[in-house]
Amino acid sequence: MENSQNSTIERLRAAGLFTKGVVYRLVGMLTAMFAIGMGGDIKGVSGIAEFFPNNPLGLSCWA
Predict the structure, then answer these.
(1) 33 and 39 in contact (C-beta within 8 Å)?
(2) Coil, strand or helix at 19
(3) How many domains is the chain partitioned into structurally?
């Protein structure tokens, strides 16, 4: 039983680290885009959903 709990904890830990990496990458990319003048005009969640598939920085694969 203890072995399966450790396995579950390790999987949750790995998922959390992966999610943290995704969030840091998104924030970094959005910050860089704003710095070079590609951002700042998106308003709301629907604007973000429309922006990502059409951007030139490689996020179009998420759509």
Answers:
(1) yes
(2) helix
(3) 1
Mean pLDDT rounded to a whole number for the chain: 76
Tokens of 14: 């790995």
What was the pLDDT predicted at 24? Answer: 93
**Residue 23 lies in domain:** 2-62
Give Cα separations from 15 to 8, 12, 30, 47, 59 (angstroms). 11, 5, 23, 28, 21
At residue 49, the pLDDT reads: 66
- CA 9/CA 7 separation, integer angstroms: 5
Distance from chain centroid for Cα 6: 27
Confidence of residue 63 (pLDDT cuts 50, 70, 90): very low
